[in-house]
């Protein structure tokens, strides 16, 4: 009996020791992750933002009302260390309201510091709207520029519902309430309403281009038929000012009194904490295991849930349907 009691006491001691070391190990891991986060986050001193420099801000991908980007532009505007700004644009466009918000933020910034837009592959629709907010636009010879216009898209699944035997009944206060919708073909009145809204936004967009590029109204309208242009064509049509890359952007800033030898420091988006990213990744892995999927599927889930956006309402975005020229 004594041996059995001693064995139980020993097991309890061993369990307590294991618990202690497990907790200690978890604490070390947590401290390491927190330290990694602060190391990655850095400070103005390490990032070079405290010394005089040229700030580089990227506007990439689909455009929407991006609070983080708007705050970053405001921080660049308020920074005494920023002497000039390179706006790196590579976007097919996005929501009209999103483009408007970023356009206005760039214009406020340009009132305090010289801003030059440097286009990469693409500055179309709302992407071009944002580039035009700068005081000088530089693009590659093969960059894609333009697609000035506005569109509104909605699906009509009424025929599909009919085929599967589903009928949607709607009771509303007036004929144009919630029109157009997914469940019925749009009426002529609904289409006319949306068309009036599109034309109003289009006129506003054309007015911006006319003002920023110093066109007559007729010149702006001639280029605002939705066409896209190469950089070479765009400079000939005065949609941009110059062909080239970042070196040309810096050379233009020099004409505004900015020292061309200043370092170019990219103001990057604020990243999620390393700790949050760690647990988010772990949660996705747990979900894939729960669903009986291989762990490699976590990357696919992240792509589907975190990096996709459905554009609703008025949009200014360049679409390519992939059809060859002449296809019907």
Automatic annotation (TrEMBL):
Which UniProt keywords are present, listed alphabetically?
Hydrolase, Membrane, Protease, Serine protease, Transmembrane, Transmembrane helix
**Highest taxon above the source species:** Bacteria
Q: Which InterPro entries match?
A: ClpP/crotonase-like_dom_sf, Pept_S49_SppA, Peptidase_S49, S49_SppA_C
Q: Which residues form a coiled coil?
A: none
Task: List, in alphabetical order, the GO biological process terms annotated in this UniProt record.
Answer: proteolysis
Q: Which CDD domains match?
A: S49_Sppa_N_C
Q: Which spans are transmembrane here? A: 20-39
Q: Is Nuclease one of the keywords UniProt gives this record?
A: no
> From what organism does this protein derive?
Phyllobacterium trifolii
Protein family membership: Belongs to the peptidase S49 family.
For the keyword Repeat, the answer is no
Q: Which residues form the Peptidase S49 domain?
A: 110-255
Q: What is its EC number?
A: 3.4.21.-
Q: What is this protein called?
A: Protease-4
Question: What's an example of a GO molecular-function annotation for this chain?
Answer: serine-type peptidase activity
């Amino acid at each position: 009996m004594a041996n059995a009691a001693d064995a139980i006491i020993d097991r309890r001691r061993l369990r307590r020791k294991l618990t202690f070391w497990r907790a200690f190990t978890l604490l070390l891991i947590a401290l390491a992750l927190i330290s990694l986060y602060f190391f990655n986050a850095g400070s103005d001193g390490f990032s070079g933002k405290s010394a005089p420099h040229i700030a580089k801000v990227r506007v990439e991908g689909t455009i929407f009302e991006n609070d983080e980007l708007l705050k970053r532009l405001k921080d660049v505007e308020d920074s005494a260390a920023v002497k000039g700004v390179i706006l790196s644009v590579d976007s097919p466009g996005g929501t009209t309201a999103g483009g408007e918000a970023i356009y206005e933020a760039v214009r406020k910034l340009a009132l305090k510091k010289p801003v030059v837009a440097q286009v990469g592959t693409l500055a179309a629709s709302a992407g071009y709207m944002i580039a035009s907010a700068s005081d000088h636009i530089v693009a590659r010879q093969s960059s894609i520029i333009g697609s000035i216009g506005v569109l509104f898209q909605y699906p009509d699944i009424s025929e599909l519902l009919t085929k599967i035997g589903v009928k949607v009944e709607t009771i509303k206060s007036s004929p144009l309430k919630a029109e157009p919708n997914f469940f019925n073909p749009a009426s002529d009145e609904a289409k006319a309403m949306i068309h009036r809204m599109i034309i109003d936004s289009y006129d506003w967009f054309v007015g911006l281009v006319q003002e920023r590029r110093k066109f007559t109204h007729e010149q702006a309208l001639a280029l605002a038929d939705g066409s896209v242009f190469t950089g070479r064509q765009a400079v000939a049509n005065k949609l941009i000012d110059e062909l080239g890359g970042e070196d040309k952007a810096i050379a233009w800033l020099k004409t505004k009194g900015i020292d061309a030898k200043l370092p170019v420091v990219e103001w990057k988006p604020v990243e999620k904490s390393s700790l949050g990213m760690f647990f988010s990744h772990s949660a996705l892995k747990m979900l894939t295991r729960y669903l009986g999927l291989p762990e490699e599927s976590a990357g696919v889930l992240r792509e589907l849930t975190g990096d996709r956006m459905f554009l609703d309402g008025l949009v200014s975005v360049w679409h390519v349907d992939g059809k060859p020229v002449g296809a019907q």
